[in-house]
Amino acid sequence: MNEHKESWLRMRWRRTARTAVAVAASVGITVLAIGFTAGAATAGVGSADRNAREVAIAAAPVSQVAAGNLHTCVTQTDGTLWCWGNNFYGQLGDGTTTNRTGPVQIGSATTWAGIDAGSGNTCGVRTDGTLWCWGNNSSGQVGDGSTTKRTSPVQVGTATTWASVSIGSNHTCAVRTDGTLWCWGLNRHAQLGVGLSPYKATTPLQVGTATTWASVTTGYAHTCAVRTDGTLWCWGSSSDGQLGLGILSYRATPTQVGTATTWAEVTAGYVHTCAVRVDGTLWCWGEDGYGQVGGGVGSQTTPLRIGAASNWASVDASLDSSCATRTDGSLWCWGKNSSGQLGDGTTTHRSTPAQVGTATTWTDGFSVTYHACVARTDGSLWCWGDNTFGQLGDGTTTHRSTPAQVAMPG
Prior knowledge:
By secondary structure, this protein is mainly beta. It has helices spanning 6-26, 48-57, and strands at residues 34-37, 62-67, 71-76, 81-85, 100-105, 112-117, 121-126, 131-135, 150-155, 162-167, 171-176, 181-186, 200-206, 213-218, 222-227, 232-237, 250-256, 263-268, 272-277, 282-286, 300-305, 312-318, 321-326, 331-335, 350-355, 362-368, 371-376, 381-385, 398-406. A hairpin with a 4-residue loop joins strand 27 (371-376) and strand 28. The chain is globular and about 45 Å long.
């Protein structure tokens, strides 16, 4: 396999992220790139005005958040699914390719349990264990046996034992309730974990025979997963050390990262990876051009502990940014900040975690790409960063460098 280096990978990933923008412009869709603003309601600012706005919005409880490159989807506690933002590939799932600047309910089902969003597609698991995907399908990442774009959710096979799903740029992986792991879509860099063949899979392929997989995460061209015994495994491209194996090549099948048996969760970004251990420590590795690894100098090929804190609860990595919550409910972000996606009121890149406001009510329901969306303990949703296609859900295309509350239909 011809392993591509950092510059090529970055160019491809960002080209994928910008495809919808370029095509939209070519067909005459007006893209509004209005300057940054702090938003009508900002996190951690205890003003009477902000409190009044929170009451007025009275957002319905949000249970899970997924941020794609240019769109956002959330599930609510009533089991409904809502999406907004760019819809060029039908990734919103509303049966159209019309962009939305505010939340639109997807179908009438009230059984959505989990959701994830990629660069141009979306997948969700329902309470009956079925898996549904939609949007861009050029590499078979929807998993329905075709490469046809889908503008509404289509069921992936007939299995009713799906537990969770993760979407990368052009591939998808999911874990079943029996502990098996399945991947499909593009396999150019062996990111499916089944060897170098096939080049792409349009239906799920089982990864090995293990029945102890607990969770999985997908990056641009690599995949990582945690097993029930607390071990961490990664495979696919490691052009910048994103597999954490001390190599700059690739692995075609799952390979254990070190010998630790205390990994709690892992998240794969563009070409970097972060994870939390059961002792509350935070670790990152891979490409660090914008400080997204959170420490060290240059690419890190093995896990690097971030700071001395031992109260990290959850972490999310995507593109060139990372965010994490602590057990005290605070939220911290670092890495690339050109779109204000770190939420600190600036567009300055950060090489170490910086707290987002002063609020201590953030939950582990959060996701970050060129924009970020996070749920609070009261069920409200807050978004910030790039808003070119209305992916912040506030009815505008105004970028925001601090959190602003989303008025969810209630």
